Structure prediction request, 69 residues.
Amino acid sequence: MYLSTGDVARKFGVTSATIRNWTDKGILKCERLWDGNRRYCEEDVEPILDVWNKYNKIFTKQERRNNND
Prediction:
C-alpha cells in the first residue's frame, strides 16, 4: 500500500515538511508520481516508524525521570 506525504506525517506525528526533508536527506525513500507528488511504500515506512516509536518511548521515560528529580 502506498501512502501520501500527509499520511506518513500523521503516522510520525510530524509535519509534511519534515517528511519531505527526511526524504531529501535519504532517511525515507519515495516514488515520484508524474505530477511530482511523493508516494511512500508502507513496507519502507514501517521499520523506520518502529524505531521512531521506540526512541520516543525511551526519551519520554528519561524526560519523566528528569522531571521527578
Q: What stands out?
A: The radius of gyration is 15 Å. The beta strands are 2-3, 31-32, 38-41. The chain has a mean pLDDT of 89.
